[in-house]
Every structure is written in structure tokens, then in C-alpha cells.
Write a structure and sequence with these properties.
single chain; 87 residues; alpha+beta; 5-stranded mixed sheet; 2 helices; disordered N terminus
């Protein structure tokens, strides 16, 4: 599954790209990982999620992010993609 990722700081659009979602999951703070994975599992039925959690940046700095995600479905209603926005 592809992920369309839009990263914004304030209202400035910085970058939109496709990447391997597991790379981002590995950056989530260990204390937040279980909660975020649970929400991602529910994304298929909920169609939308929103949460705040910590990521570990290169160099070890911890940063709080606010994230929203929505599903993208094909004509049969199957999830084919999801779009995420972090700020």
C-alpha cells in the first residue's frame, strides 16, 4: 500500500511524496507506538484518524506531531491507500 504524505509547518506546504510507511512507524516514540498502531488498524473502518504523538528525530531529538490520516478506496470500497498530514 502506498502512502501519500503531506508535511506542513503552519500553513506552508513543504513536500508531498510517496514512501514506505514502516520507515515512519519506526520513528514513533516507543511509549506511543502501541496506541498509534491500534488507531491505524481501525483506520480501515473509521476512514479517518487524528492524534498527537512523539517521534524520535535523527540525532535523538523528540518532537511532538499532530497527525491526521484518511483512507483512499477503490470502486469496490477496498482501502488502496491512505493520506497522512503531520504538523
Amino acid at each position: 500500500m502506498r502512502v501519500q504524505h503531506t508535511k506542513r509547518f503552519g500553513s506552508v506546504h513543504k513536500k508531498k511524496f510517496e514512501f514506505d510507511p514502516t520507515a515512519y512507524l519506526k520513528s514513533i516514540h516507543p511509549d506511543d507506538t502501541a496506541r498509534i498502531l491500534e488507531k491505524l488498524e481501525r483506520l480501515e473502518t473509521a476512514n479517518h484518524l487524528e492524534d498527537e504523538y512523539r517521534i524520535i528525530c535523527p540525532g535523538g531529538r523528540i518532537k511532538w506531531v499532530h497527525s491526521t490520516a484518511s483512507t483512499v478506496r477503490d470502486s469496490q470500497g477496498r482501502v488502496t491507500d491512505f493520506s497522512r498530514h503531520n504538523s
